[in-house]
Amino acid sequence: MERLNEVLFYVGTYNPEGEEAILLCSLSPSSGEMKILEGTKGIENPSFLAVNSTGSVLYAVSEKDEGEVYAFAIDPVTKALSPLGSRPTEGGAPCYVSISPKQDYIFVSNYSGGNANVFPVNEDGSLQVMSDQVKHVGSGIREDRQEAPHPHSVIPDGSGKHILVCDLGLDQILIYRLEEGKLSKHREINLPPGSGPRHLAVHPSGQWIYLANELNCTVTVFANDEQNGNLSILQHVSTLPEQYNAGSDDTASDIHVSPCGKFLYVSNRGQDSIALFHIEGSTGHLEAVDWQVTGGRTPRNFAIIGGKLLAANQNSDIITSFSIDIDSGRLIPTGNELKIKTPVCIQAV
């Protein structure tokens, strides 16, 4: 939402409960300049945020050993947050929250807990008691990162009938049917061993879904059969340049499709870049175009807001902004940065 020619956004951080852990910020769409407007205390490590379709409620996970998910009412004028309560996620390190298309459920994945949850939503946006939880079992080939299930994200499909859970530890996307707040296993999509599936991005057309694989720094392209709740692999591409010598610190992180549907962006930690791909309009296939350094360390998360791309550089405590060339999709540094301690999630108001 714009106010006085500014676009507003929230930032989640790894900050303790007694500090301002969710920041309300503004962005100038013309210059890319950003400012902190105010902060919200009372939640520890809000590492992932989601705002409902009416812009009236923000949901935030509290990533800690005994995880919680919080709801906040958003003031319609100031966009300040007021707590609506929290619920335990019954799993450690919740790292993702998403909202059903009808706004009647939220979904949470617990990274160390190895499970994913469903919470019904009241009319005011507050949360009811958890209606279901699915527990994953198994492991992958990487003993250091895949010793157990690690659900890293959970999203509904466009119909709201199926829930997709990316499990980094199992090298799988697990698809569940959602009926009256209950989940039932529908199918498993297997990825190459050691991939580490992390986050998904859905093309605006709904035809394709793109997966960022954290551990092997790749993107997997899927044809999306929403009616039958199925994904078919079309392509695997690296998120790093051919000539780049990847090390143990190199991991893919966040992924987004541009609103126009022509470009895909993926953040690389280690190389500390945003990879740009052109999306072929008839097939959904990807062609690598460019890699833009983010001007900071560890771009865990980024967002496309107000015609700009904002990169949350977790380990250098800054958010950097970039203009987006509308024809090529290339990123152009604005030269602006915003100092925020451990920024790890950016969410438009």
Automatic annotation (TrEMBL):
<dbReference type="Pfam" id="PF10282">
    <property type="entry name" value="Lactonase"/>
</dbReference>
<dbReference type="InterPro" id="IPR019405">
    <property type="entry name" value="Lactonase_7-beta_prop"/>
</dbReference>
<dbReference type="InterPro" id="IPR050282">
    <property type="entry name" value="Cycloisomerase_2"/>
</dbReference>
<protein>
    <submittedName>
        <fullName>6-phosphogluconolactonase</fullName>
    </submittedName>
</protein>
<dbReference type="InterPro" id="IPR015943">
    <property type="entry name" value="WD40/YVTN_repeat-like_dom_sf"/>
</dbReference>
<dbReference type="InterPro" id="IPR011048">
    <property type="entry name" value="Haem_d1_sf"/>
</dbReference>
<comment type="similarity">
    <text>Belongs to the cycloisomerase 2 family.</text>
</comment>
<dbReference type="GO" id="GO:0017057">
    <property type="term" value="F:6-phosphogluconolactonase activity"/>
</dbReference>
